[in-house]
Amino acid sequence: MAATAPATPAQSAGAVPALPQQQADHVGILAAEVYFPNTMVRHEELEKHDGVPSGKYTVGLGQQGLAFCGDREDAVSMALTACKRLLEKHGISPMEVGRLEVGTESSVDSSKSIKTYLMMMFEEAGNTDIEGVDCVQACYGGTAAVLNAANWVESRSWDGRYAVVVMSDISLYPAGPARPTSGAGAVALLIGPDAPLALERGLSATHMSHAYDFYKPSGLYPAVDGPLSVYCYLNTMDLLLARYAAKFEKRMGRAFCLESDADHALFHAPYNKLVQKAFARLLYHDMCKHGEVPEALAKWSLRDGSHPRPPMAMPADLEKALVAHAFATYDRKVRPSTCVARQCGNMYTASIWSGIQQLIETTGASLEGRRVLMYSYGSGISASMFSLVGRRPEAPRFALARLQAMSDLAMRLARRVPKSPEDFEQAVQLAEQRYCAGNYKPELPAIEELEPGTFYLAEVDARYRRIYARKPAAQ
Amino acid sequence: MAATAPATPAQSAGAVPALPQQQADHVGILAAEVYFPNTMVRHEELEKHDGVPSGKYTVGLGQQGLAFCGDREDAVSMALTACKRLLEKHGISPMEVGRLEVGTESSVDSSKSIKTYLMMMFEEAGNTDIEGVDCVQACYGGTAAVLNAANWVESRSWDGRYAVVVMSDISLYPAGPARPTSGAGAVALLIGPDAPLALERGLSATHMSHAYDFYKPSGLYPAVDGPLSVYCYLNTMDLLLARYAAKFEKRMGRAFCLESDADHALFHAPYNKLVQKAFARLLYHDMCKHGEVPEALAKWSLRDGSHPRPPMAMPADLEKALVAHAFATYDRKVRPSTCVARQCGNMYTASIWSGIQQLIETTGASLEGRRVLMYSYGSGISASMFSLVGRRPEAPRFALARLQAMSDLAMRLARRVPKSPEDFEQAVQLAEQRYCAGNYKPELPAIEELEPGTFYLAEVDARYRRIYARKPAAQ
């Protein structure tokens, strides 16, 4: 063969036919599935156990309960469960998926992605031709994955198949004031064109910078600067509101007004009280911009064109008054998507996206023609503000009314049986022992306590290989 | 304001104007910059020091030297250096960048991305509106990031700005047979339309599955199953060649032939000997498919339509004969892109992409009209086979001849001053001590030994915050 090789290179790529130019429309969320561990503890119980004043966690943090994993579940098993639920429930064959990626900050390996574990369920169906890997950047990784998936569908790489994005995380804090903000859960999203919740392309605003508000440099527990975290979350939201509003105004020819232009707002939720404050702050921006200030806030002299006080210089009583004033609007625009986060705790990457299935469950076809404003935040810092628009897709399979009818979130939240604070502490001790460990069989919870169809960690062998199994689905 | 709120939701999203439909063309690599630490050790010296037969590393692995970091550099500092070099050398303002993402498996934090550290140089220029996060999936993360960036440029998210992709990794193995395959380095790529090395859209083939060939579950060092790794690398390449060839045939109307259809081939390079074997194996597939078998290989009865022996069933003497036979073609198509990997060791995500700058440096404008076949592999498993096409861009700034003239890779490789094997061992011991540590000042190498313009780790404080500094660039 060497004898037949050309003396000069082949100029091999001279005449490559162009690809068709058609670009997909209305790309966004076709369906969403949330998974949370069955094991949970109520914040009411935690308050008693921790000897803190009643209301400190339930009112002060705005939380009702937190989900925890024991050592039987991890970010991989939760991702497997959420992904399988999405495919099975919506009748998606693994062959129909051309992109799969994961947002996480709870990976069990520094090299091997959670995505490769999810490939097990696609491989057994004969499909390994699936792009995408793990996206890692604190709580923002899932949003990065969603934007990547949407870009793929609109790019020349797209081959007509669906994208699946899975977010899966465990948040766990050392004993102390942050521990009640622990949580766990996973979300799987089906992404494609003709979506009932389409991304508003061209309105997405992003802010990224370097900060040490929350990071995880040294083991199981994160390093957290609480006040800096809150400041970064709110300050970044201010920046993004300005960027989003500028894009909105340029495209729509009028100023953005939260009250009239966003029917729903979803927030990354470290704990619900911060979501309440964030939403009130968005309304505060509206007031300073549009000048419609209610009587109750008259003493702060907000007027048309006044500058919102930056988060650092916000008087506590003004913030409190704003939250109180915003309550009715919050009730309408935000509350319908906050149950999972309030009852399961911080799910990191899955946090904001857990609100989507819940919004579909509570609101259904009424979302058609409505705008959902999203504020996704990841410490470190990375954040985006963007919007989804509800619409009636051509494919009835993904109609909002149908998705609503199929959703079982409230039912699944309600049927969990709470564990005691002592059980939670035992699970945390186990997590400490198991961190980066090999050669063990998981102990908690008992397999009987898992929901049917749940994936779980069956064993970690002496070579640190993790073997997963699935509890049979209900008949 | 509550009084003026509408009783029913706003149906806010009724009339959103459509975005323009124009899609970018010839998206690909506009420029590439490689960075490797100045501190390196020669494999010849390592052979003597380790008391192994002469040639074991140099011929057996095909390696010449390995770069190592000490504790003064890490994956973040190398990413900073590579990114800064790319921007400065090609006169790209940080304001011109709209997407920045990182491929890595050597992150210093489980939550905060390397991308957020890179934001420092964009923030100081006033640009924080930059999408993209870290892509994590073994050595494939960089390729995933490149594909994401290309999709972004072709999507409706694109705003006309450049994308930058940075790959940065340290490979380090415990004392024993794998240690000589250690290495370190980073690559920064500028991605956009009208590229001198454009991705051939529609020809990319991907394979992902679950395997434990190489992973990193328990600390500094990976867990490696050597024979399984080699098998997975070669077996995945077989699968991808078939997929790539099928797409090629469908689009081009003729069978793919490595000899005539690929002028260059780049491979992920754990060590050079595997690259030699992999390329010989691709030629072997050509033979079995096209039947042009040279005399020297006659005894193995390869004929038109015969099936290549799978990697597991490959006789050692046939593999050796294939490598020998392929030598002349390897010399022409592969060698011109392998110097960095052979002299710096495994750079994980940066490995295959380090070949791009080198190919530009050795080949320049002769790449126009030529096809470069790429085989990117990450353990776990994820891999893609795809191709780039050399072309003359409309913007002379990124013409291949100009990129070639500006490249200084061979010069920088040559002016490194080798360290002793003892120095390397001392650096490894330091890496063991520093793993997940806080509260220290880096010791090695001395700042004087860094190249001008290199970023380095100045301090890790008691709260694990990493402070980076930059050695002044040469005047």
TrEMBL record, chains A, B:
GO biological process: acetyl-CoA metabolic process; farnesyl diphosphate biosynthetic process, mevalonate pathway; sterol biosynthetic process
Pfam families (alphabetical): HMG_CoA_synt_C, HMG_CoA_synt_N
Annotated binding of CoA, by residue: 229, 273, 277
Any one Gene Ontology molecular-function term assigned to this protein's record: hydroxymethylglutaryl-CoA synthase activity
Top EC class of this enzyme: transferase
Source domain of life: Eukaryota
Signal peptide start-end: none
Residues annotated as the enzyme's active site: 105, 139, 268
Location of the Hydroxymethylglutaryl-coenzyme A synthase N-terminal domain: 25-196
PANTHER family: 3-HYDROXY-3-METHYLGLUTARYL COENZYME A SYNTHASE, HYDROXYMETHYLGLUTARYL-COA SYNTHASE
Family per similarity comment: Belongs to the thiolase-like superfamily. HMG-CoA synthase family.
Protein name: Hydroxymethylglutaryl-CoA synthase
Organism name: Chlorella ohadii
